[in-house]
Amino acid sequence: MNLEPNSLQLHSQAIEAIVAAAKTRVVAIRNASHRHVTGLLWQPDVIVASEQAIGERDEYEVVATGHSSRAQIIGRDAGTNILILRTSERIDVSPWSPAVPAIGGVALALAANSDGTPAVRAGIVRSVGDRWFSRAGGRIDQRITLDIRLHRTEEGGPVVDASGALIGMSTLGRPGEVLAIPTATLNRVVPQLLTNGRVARGWLGVALQPIAVPDALVDQAGQRVGMMVMSVAERGPAATAGVTAGDILLTVDGIALRGMRPLAARLSEENIGQSVEVRLIRGGHIQNLATQIGTRP
Amino acid sequence: MPLLVGVLATDETRRAVLTKLVEGAGHRVVATAQPDVLVCDTKQASAPRPTLLFSDQSSPTENRLPWDASPRQIDAALRALAAGLSIRLARSASRRGFEELTESAVQSILTPRELDVIDAIGAGLSNKAIARELAISLHTVKFHIESLLRKLGARTRAEAVAKALERRRKETVEL
Lengths: 297, 175
Prior knowledge:
The complex is a heterodimer of chains A (297) and B (175). Chain A has two domains: 7-196, Beta Barrel (Thrombin, subunit H); 202-295, Pdz3 Domain, CATH 2.30.42.10. Chain A is an alpha+beta fold. Chain A contains five helices and 22 strands. The N and C termini of chain A lie far apart (70 Å). Chain B has two domains: 4-93, Rossmann fold (3-Layer(aba) Sandwich); 106-171, Orthogonal Bundle (Arc Repressor Mutant, subunit A), CATH 1.10.10. Helix content of chain B is 42%, strand content 12%. With 175 residues, chain B is an alpha/beta fold. Chain B has helices spanning 12-24, 71-82, 112-122, 127-134, 138-152, 157-171, and strands at 4-8, 28-29, 37-40, 51-55, 64-66, 173-174. At the A-B interface, strand 9, strand 15, strand 16, strand 17 and helix 5 of A face helix 3, helix 6 and strand 6 of B.
């Protein structure tokens, strides 16, 4: 009889060991009506969860293997889909070690049942792309998609690699797509949420839609596409500079606005307070205005 | 004519909630063996009657409504089920996931004039009325509409209006 475990048994034991090691750090976040979503214990009294999965009320109960506690939302950022809660009890945890996600690498999405017991989904890292911007304007360091199905209650749990290192937090993307918000993004955003309750983000105070530059102005503008100002926030930086609805923005600081991404990148938190020159079309003429990047309210 | 609705609940609290939802939609909760429709709070393996499930998931799964569905939605759902149809939440009514900023291909981005025209179509104006409103010729209006249909990938004016709205919702960003 062969007493050596076969490779399938080893594979199985490895997954079991990762789940066993991580289970105290995977929590069920329950509201008063006992509906729950998953969260991950980030540090002894801080839970990280999916912003889009959690409503507006403040009081939650956090339950995991071996502990439970009351918890309150202390910060959220829709831009990166990160929300944090502070627990009333401290739970001893070692910090997560970050993973470098590799396409095709094993990924385990851990989740909590409503009683706090762990659950796990297994798959692989489907794709790893460059940094990207969410519709809410947040910058996410890598675009990681997973070949894993996830129930709504399982969103917000840790996604780990074959060594148990943290790839990121599971997040439901567009229908049928499961993402991981990378550990690097969590590392960047959670400290800001702990300090300010939100993420400072550059702001011009305009709602913009891509628009084709009218043919007569293409040559002079030097580009075919700009961004039409649909509305201007009262007393925002754009309003102060004299931007009005109907203007077509061409460049901000010389960066052509062929789409939203270059502008979203220009408005990162490091650039708050900087002056920028905006080139725009108004009433059939091209003109320049100076404004300052403000802080999103 | 109110429907006769049976309630299958895991406990008395849930039963009271379900009863309230049914009655709020203008129907009667009954205990007979043959109700028109059943409502329940957990998935039934084999329900004897058409069944509406209330759940936390707002995923567009068949015959399922979120707990915060409006009385109008509940009424419509119960009637549809009683008539032998199945119901599904419209995609836009279900919660959207965390999505990327999307950008249209350059050649399909609308011009300011085309936006004026699509807004006018959306307001129900005829081609003649649009020409008057925008002070352009009828021929130019038709030219813009052709271009709109092509850029939006629409076959009819109504489809173009819907697609333009959807695009505006997706592409408008506050910065």
